[in-house]
Design brief:
mainly beta; Mannose-Binding Protein A, Chain A; 6-stranded mixed beta sheet
């Protein structure tokens, strides 16, 4: 998964994913309210976040962080998407170059 640590990458990803909800590779499943990147277990930075106002708020039922389409804002959601609504995701290639997959 690709970590988003500053505004320009978020804007670039939002432009490419359009209005699709996209999993960003962070979860608070291990410690409620503390989102960590699954790539290296580091805490999602306080220096750059882009949460929807009053989010995250899902408690133990919503442990995955997603980007909401064109707005490039983040929200906490269930980690189990509905069958009718597959979830896109952002990743990074092993050589360090970015990739966008769905």
């Amino acid at each position: 998964m690709r970590q988003l640590s500053r505004a320009p990458p978020s804007a670039i990803y939002a432009e490419r994913i359009g209005n699709q909800t996209t999993y960003l590779g962070a979860t608070d499943a291990d410690e409620e309210g503390v989102f960590r990147w699954v790539e290296d277990n580091s805490v999602v930075s306080d220096s750059y976040t882009n949460w929807v106002p009053e989010k995250p708020d899902g408690g133990e039922a919503e442990n995955c962080m997603v980007m909401l389409g064109d707005a490039a804002t983040w929200e906490d959601v269930s980690c189990v998407p509905e069958a009718e609504t597959p979830m896109n995701f952002v990743c990074s290639k092993p050589n360090g170059t970015n990739c966008l997959m769905s």
